[in-house]
Amino acid sequence: MKILYLNHNPEGYGTYFRCYHLARHIAARGHSVTLLCASREPTLSIRDRTEGNLTIRLLPRVNLATYHTGHTLRMFLNARECLTQKMDILHAFAFPLHPVSFPTFLTSIARPKVKIVLDHDDMWKGGFTLHHPRPVRAVYDFTEDRLPAVADMATAASAILMRKFRDAGLPEEKIHYIPNCPTLVAAMPDKDQARTAIGLAPDARMVLSMGHTYTESLFALLDAYAYARQSLPDLKLYFLGKLHISDDFKARMAAYEERFAPDIVKVGEKPSTEVPTYLAASDALLLPMDDDPIEKARFPIRFGDYLASGVPVVSNAVGEIKRIMEAHDCGYTAPVADAAAFGQAIVTALTDADGRRRKHDNALRLIAEELNWPAVAARLEAVYERTLAG
After folding, report:
1. Helix and strand totals (H; E) in the chain
2. Which of 51, 136, 162, 284 is the most buried (most CB within 10 A)?
3. Which long-range contacts (CB under 8 A, 24 or more apart) does 266-274 make?
4. Residues 170-184 pLDDT 10s
């Protein structure tokens, strides 16, 4: 099979990870895959990188204001690729967005023999589109509702997003659950070795939150940490990632940093090869979530990495993540609006030896049996085969 993946993100950001890992494992199964995405750095050039049967085509990224400003340019470039590429299947990710929706719709008209697969991995209509200007919101809501009419198949990262395809009129047999999976490539080091590597004492208690972007859930996490400190007064909280937060959030967070100094540590972004060291050094991994449609629908990539690390996961989980954690008993959950319960869940995760072992075993079993890219790619390959046979 020859498959073209359309993705609006820059390399190494957001949905790119879902596209890349699906693409490389589909390519490893003998198929030819081209992944279109924006360059990570500002550029007007087009570059290709080849990994076996996978070609990653990096399109121009123009940063006049934000990374979104190159979307319209890439809409035309994506359309050209869709009209000229030799392909059997076009797989369109985040399809409501115009750099993806327009080329996909054009392909359905100009190349009717090409099969079209749409993918939902985020809540756009009723979620992210609410944060766009009204004209942009109207376009994205329209394409989300109407584009499924040209789809031969659809894939989604959560039960809620599968329901969006049903609401758009797709029959059940065309809708397929394709979850996200861990992206860790380096082996997990021994905990003591990991702590030595990052300068953390062997007997210290430390919890970690990984991610770049935080919303109000940041303060649910900090309030939960403050509660947990009542039982574990020496508990440290590490943040791994760039921490893209507003000036207002920085000021609010500073109050917690001053109160608990020096035990709140902002590590910053680290190379992917070093991430396992920080995860392995932790006593628990925290996943704060908001009680909103975006969070309920999504499947954060870091959740898979958390599970694969073998370190207990603690979350005020909602939606898909809550469903997985409770169905598989693979982590500690708390009601989303209850910081004290979230804090108590942190304490329990650090002190409940039997529960930690059980949840550790369940998490690794889930990763081994279901949430791994080779298994999910095999499932996706079957979807492609059904699409071509239809």
Report:
1. 15, 14
2. 284
3. 266/239, 267/238, 267/239, 267/240, 267/241, 268/240, 268/241, 268/242, 268/243, 269/212, 269/240, 269/241, 269/242, 270/240, 272/183, 272/185, 272/186, 273/185, 273/186
4. 999 999 999 999 988
d(C-alpha 234, C-alpha 146), whole Å:
54
Task: Count Cβ neighbours within 10 Å for each residue of 213-245 and write b for 16 or more, e otherwise.
Answer: ebbebbbbbbbbbbbbbeebeebbbbbbbebeb
Nearest CA among 219, 227, 289, 290 for reference residue 255: 219
Note the pTM of the prediction, 2 decimals: 0.90
What's the CA gap between 286 and 345, in Å, rounded? Answer: 10
CA dist., res. 237 & res. 219, Å (int): 13
The pLDDT value recorded for residue 67 is 45
CATH node for 2-180+373-389? 3.40.50.2000
- pLDDT attached to residue 320: 92
CATH architecture of structural domain 191-369: 3-Layer(aba) Sandwich (3.40)
With tokens 């070795």, the residue in question is 193
- Domain ranges across the chain: 2-180+373-389, 191-369
The DSSP line for 86-107 is --SEEEEESTTSHHHHHHHHHH
- How much is the CA Rg of the chain, to the nearest whole Å? 21
The single-letter code of the amino acid at 185 is V
Does the structure show a pLDDT above 70 at 201? yes
Q: Residue 129's CB: how many other CB atoms inside 10 A?
A: 20
DSSP-derived 3-state class of residue 40: coil
- 2-180+373-389 and 191-369 share one CATH topology? yes
